[in-house]
Amino acid sequence: MMLKYRPLWVAVCMAMPAVAVAESYQLPDVTVVGKSAVMSGAAVTVDGLASDNNQDLADLLKQTAGAAVVRNGAQTGIVQLHGLFNERVKVLVDGMDITPACPNHMDPPLHYAAIDSTNQLDVIAGITPVSQGGDSIAGTVIVKSAPALFTKDGKLAPQVRLHAGYTSGNDATNVGATLGVANQTTSFGYRGEDIRAGNYVTPRGTVADTGFKTTRHDIYWAHQVESGQIRLDVGQHNTRDAGTPALPMDMVKDDANKASLSYVGNTAVGAVEARVYVHDIDHLMDNYSLRPNTGTKAYAPANSKNIGVTLSSKVGNFKYGAEYLTNDFNAYSQVLGGARKDMFNNSRRDRFGLYGEWLGSVAPDWTLLAGARADRVSMNTDDIIYGYSATSSATQLVQTNFNALDHQRTDYNVDVALLAKYRASAVQSYEFGVARKTRSPSILERYLWSSQQSSAGQADGYNYLGNIDLKPEVSNQITAATEWKTAAWQFKPTLYYNRVTDYIQGTSTGVIISGKPVLQYQNVNAELYGIDLATDYAISPALTVGGTLSYVRGKNLDNGDNLYRIAPLSARLYAEQQAGKWTNRAELNIAQRQNDVAAYNKEQPTSGYAVVNLRTRWQADKSWRVSAGVENLFDALYYDHLGGINRVSNSVIAVGGQLPSMGRSAYLSVDYAW
After folding, report:
1. Are strands 89-93 and 84-85 parallel, antiparallel or unpaired?
2. In this structure, are residues 150 and 173 in contact, taking their beta carbons and an 8 Å threshold?
3. Is residue 2 a part of any domain in this protein?
């Protein structure tokens, strides 16, 4: 898979995806589009070697300045952009806005993105055009699978792509297949993959409860009509026994089914893109199948169903559109052989949005993108029926008080974004942006009626309580960047500042459970600021060096504390050589010690580190490709600050200790395409 950085400016101008036409089938490319908070992104071209050993799509985001990954287990990659994560980042997987079924986000949206068939991964950190945002304040990640392929003549042509790989660090196997057939107007195909991994190994030993199994099956049908293309996608994603050592339970079963019908084409009202989709997740977690447990054993089923409709049109320089998304959510916990407790009973969140956006030249060397959108977010939930114990007066009182409330809440949100680019010379440009972005509370933040260790993956060990009267978060952002770019060299720093009014964070209720205060979601004020840097230099046609740097600081303005779980200052450097059929790559990943931790959450500092990776690829011919590499070459013992705290006993890591990253790991993969 090929990884490239392309300018955001190009992506913004592309109102509709292109329809692929090919005479022969080749290995698909993966494009990671590194996008800054303004209109052009880091123009760092990176070969696909960096993705050859990928077991979770979220890890690819680390190559983009301003992006990081919060991880509570091997399959729980939660996107962080400019220090903000979870629902504050919009993630679209093939046009679908997916709500996790797990109250602790064991199954974030990128969990449902196909690794082997992903064709494009767009990252917009910071100010997002209103056509690509809405109900989010940190940025947008857009995942697109490989487009349907058609022939240039009327003959049928088959498509075959096979993949197999092995990774030593967690004894992982990865097999995938793409099979299809197409003619000039119709394309039909199947894509499947199976990834199985054991517990990973570190210099300290094996970390318990870190294995997983995941299988995916997708079928697509696409047909070209006179005005464009109609496409139908259906698929199933199944995960079993996915350990999440940073959380109180593990994902023992997760089944997702999807169906999506889309149209892209030119009509009498302009270039149109329309989509209707359903994404349905059945999720099961427990605290005893994968980890030792001598205490109370419990399991927790959950279901999250999204139905979405999107419609957009572009006429000249103007783009406008509408979006509708509904989420039905249910979850309960059950003591093994004992009582049941409803967590969310028929909870519902509906969002309807309208937007308009103009992109064009306003003066010589000046380009402007201006847009506004309005969203109506309506939420409701049914009364709680089961509250664990009918004999507990405290539980009955909390349940009765919650049921007595009017649960219905409606927010009316307005977003505005203004982005400008000035080309000062043939090699230098300046970019400026200001925006107001709004996010309404999630179902969990509003309707978690009884204290639980459910925090949308924050994994700080505290019990949380919802707040039905939360206000939407309002983000006011400003950004500035400059870029120097020649045929051989590119250098771009970006500065940003984000003031968030009514930032949602847990604050103490005064009630103590297991020595820690119960935290209730409240509105506070916060600020985040930082710098992104991307550069690369082609020393010769065969040798390129480059890298990225990311720094963000987040503070709670109400109490002066640091915001929780913020990525430290980090840099990623690489050197890549092309030698005939061989491509070789060396990487150095560096992170500074993180001392700016949240005292309120008793967050632990982490030490800095430097890790070296070596990769190589041999492209034998158009059909065969072999990739190999060693990650963490010197077997360094290091701790990713976003890697979580261990909660599993009988592991080499003590309960409450920071989870280390994987030690030295070699991998080998083979791809065949015809």
Report:
1. unpaired
2. no
3. no
Residues 6+ away with beta carbon under 8 Å from 347: 328, 329, 330, 379, 380, 381, 382, 443, 447
Nearest to 193 by CA among 233, 238, 150: 238
Any domain includes 3:
no
- CA separation for the pair 63, 359 (Å, rounded): 28
List the chain residues with pLDDT less than 50: 1-38, 40-47, 391
Smallest CA-to-CA distance from 636 within 657, 611, 660 is with 611
| CB of 77 closer than 8 Å to CB of 105 | no
The answer to whether position 115 is within a domain reads: yes
CA atoms within 13 A on the CB side of 555: 10
Residue spans of alpha helices (H) in 266-306: none
Predicted confidence at residue 154, as pLDDT, reads 79
Q: Residue-wise over 150-162: b if at least 16 C-beta within 10 A, else e? A: bbeeeeebebebe
The end-to-end CA distance of the chain, in Å, is 15
Length in residues, the chain: 674
Which pLDDT score is estimated for 9? 34
CA–CA distance from 270 to each of 17, 227, 267 (Å)?
14, 11, 5
For residue 539 the two structure tokens come to 């020393």
DSSP structure class, residue 101 = S
Structure tokens at 663: 């030690």
CATH, residue 605: 2.40.170.20
Q: Which residue in 253, 256, 455, 233 sits closest to 343, CA to CA?
A: 455
CA distances from 383 to 329, 387, 554, 617 (A): 13, 11, 37, 58
Chain mean position to CA 214: 18
- Residue 505's contacts (CB-CB under 8 Å, 6 or more residues apart) are 521, 522, 524, 526, 556, 563, 564
Closest by CA to 650, choosing from 294, 296, 291, 295, is: 291
Q: Residue for token digits 């707040």? A: 467
Residue 344's domain comprises 8-673
Residue 1 included in any domain:
no
The shares of helix, strand and coil residues in the chain, as percent rounded to the nearest 5, are 5, 55, 35
Distances from the Cα of 291 to the Cαs of 3, 33, 209, 238, 401, in angstroms?
37, 39, 6, 21, 36
Structural domain count, the chain:
1
Q: Give the per-residue SS3 of 469-530.
A: CCCCEEEEEEEEEEEEECCCEEEEEEEEEEEEEEEEEEEEEEEEECCEEEEEEEEEEEEEEE
pLDDT 10s digits, 48-60: 677 788 788 888 8
**Residue ranges with strand state E in 168-211:** 172-182, 186-197, 201-202, 205-206
